[in-house]
Amino acid sequence: MKLIIKDLKKSFEKKEVLNGINFEFEKGKIYGLLGRNGAGKTTLFNCINEDIPIDAGDFYIEDENGSKPAPEYIGYVLSTPNVPEFLTGREFLKFFIEINEHKIKDKKDIDLYFDLMKINESDRDKLMKDYSHGMKNKMQMLVNIIASPDVLLLDEPLTSFDVVVAEEMKQMLKSIKDNHIIIFSTHIMELALDLCDEIVILNKGILEQIDKNYLDSDSFKNKIIETLKEE
Ligand SMILES: Nc1ncnc2c1ncn2[C@@H]1O[C@H](COP(=O)(O)OP(=O)(O)OP(=O)(O)O)[C@@H](O)[C@H]1O
After folding, report:
1. Which of 28, 77, 131, 195 has the fewest CB within 10 Å, making it most exposed?
2. How many angstroms separate the CA atoms of 157 and 204, rounded?
3. CA-closest residue to ligand 1 atom 30
4. How many C-alpha atoms does 22 have within 13 Å on its Cβ side?
5. For atom 24 of ligand 1, which residue has the closest CA?
6. pTM tops 0.80
């Protein structure tokens, strides 16, 4: 399975943000998406998730059965969590599982899902408006893991997690990567290098993959920084 992006363009008024993105993301890999502030990482995710219209180009998923439109097979974890705050964590999970019942393979007891995310028993029946930023982020991550979409877009998802949870999330993402395409945007280069199989840089509106042969060399970080400085 691949997520194929062809000549994708997006501008906001006169500002050209995505200037012809061409890329093939493959199943079984975690891609680290790096770019300067305002480079267009979130815009790229919003386009692929069809939250905003694109100006030109195409994107789709291709597998052994042919090609299919991408958005239905995408899970998107936003950097600012977006959960219904008027529900408790338990109500949210119950509702999510009910409306996605046909999609969810291997359904588990709700408390097992909370356990997976290390959400305390005392917090499970609280309104999510009283959850911390990190707890809301965990809930958003959790529903995406339960739905197990083919493509998982993660917009700086680990930054609000404490170090223990961040490490657990890293291990969890590694454990599910074989069956997914995971694209992970971050400003933390060490995290990208530690977690990701490929590093992709969004610069001047296009995507560029950094040669894997550099991955273990000392000069790799410098190469990324030099590429990002070129703007
Ligand atoms: N809805 C919008 N209307 C107008 N301009 C927008 C809109 N959304 C994004 N932009 C502009 O597009 C550019 C790319 O923004 P985007 O949020 O995609 O960057 P980013 O790489 O995710 O940045 P950061 O790393 O700082 O989060 C910025 O110049 C931003 O101001």
Report:
1. 28
2. 24
3. 38
4. 2
5. 37
6. yes
Q: How far is the CA of 42 from the centre of ligand 1 (A)?
A: 7
Q: Give the amino acid at 32.
A: G
Q: Which has more pLDDT, 226 or 75?
A: 75
For residues 128-140, give the mean pLDDT.
91
40 CA distance to ligand 1 middle (Å) = 5
pLDDT at residue 48 greater than cutoff 80:
yes
- Would strands 181-185 and 29-34 be described as parallel, antiparallel, or unpaired? parallel
Q: How far is CA 43 from the centre of its chain?
A: 13
Ligand 1 mean position, distance from CA 221 (Å): 25
For the cut 70, the answer to whether the pLDDT of residue 212 exceeds it is no
Residues with CB under 6 A from ligand 1: 12, 15, 17, 35, 37-43
Q: 89-99 and 133-147 helices cross at what angle (nearest 10)?
A: 20
Task: Give residues with Cβ within 8 angstroms of 14, minimum separation 6.
Answer: none
Q: Is 112 exposed, middle or buried (0-12, 13-18, 19+ CB in 10 A)?
A: exposed
Looking at the predicted complex, does its ipTM rise above 0.85? Answer: yes
The per-residue pLDDT for 157 is 79
